[in-house]
Amino acid sequence: MTETATFGGGCFWCTEAAMKELDGVESVTSGYAGGHTDDPTYEEVCSGSTGHAEVVQVEYDPAKISYERLLEVFFVVHDPTTLNRQGPDVGTQYRSIVLYHDDDQKAAVERFIAGLEDEGVYDDDIVTEVEPLERFYEAEAYHQDYYENNPGDAYCQFNADPKIRKVREKFADSVATGDD
After folding, report:
1. Domain contains 179
2. Of 85, 152, 157, 171, which is least packed with CB atoms within 10 Å of its CB?
3. 14 a catalytic residue
4. What's residue 178's pLDDT?
């Protein structure tokens, strides 16, 4: 039985590519959440007028990978201390956000962030929003599997490739081997 996690850490193409590296992740869907407009389009979200963030919805097998491990990966592959910005992408749609699905996830992410702060992992304060998921809107088809479908894309080579390398190096024991 799968469970679902929803994260926003900048461009969804890059977050999707990083999460797909993990054993136990069944699927990753790029989309929009955390806003106030029904059925937003990419162009509307990019304008910043809908309040949505670019997010990924991760379907995972908790027998193979824990929610806490997904949080570890998420907080390594993006900078949770920059407000409304990740790399070259600027705007509220690129904010750091965890949208929890239940009270257990809420408690887990709050504990996780408190632990990072207690350990002084980052020089600056963590600005990651922690909110309940109210509605997830799947992004347009051309955004799905973007990294896989556009291997020569310069943006992905510059922004997604380093995230994938981080996952493979720091979480080698959780990376899917393709033998499944």
Report:
1. no
2. 152
3. no
4. 66
- Provide the pLDDT for residue 177: 82
Please answer whether residues 143 and 17 qualify as being in contact, where contact means their C-beta atoms are separated by less than 8 angstroms.
no
Residue spans of beta strands (DSSP E) within 10-123: 25-33, 53-60, 85-86, 89-90, 96-100
DSSP structural state of residue 139: P
The two structure tokens encoding residue 27: 């699927």
Instruction: Please report the pLDDT score of residue 129 as a whole number.
Output: 98
- What is the tally of structural domains in the chain? 1
Distances (CA, A) of 106 to 23, 68, 89, 92, 178: 23, 11, 27, 22, 31
For residues 160 and 145, is the Cβ–Cβ distance under 8 A? Answer: no
The CATH number linked to 100 is 3.30.1060.10
Q: Are 92 and 46 in contact (CB under 8 A)?
A: no
Range of the domain at 91: 3-173
Residue 23 CA from chain centroid, whole number: 16
pLDDT-flagged residues of the chain (< 50)? 180
> What is the pTM (predicted TM-score) of this model?
0.96
Please check whether residue 180 lies inside any domain of the structure.
no
From the list 11, 14, 46, 156, the catalytic residue is 11
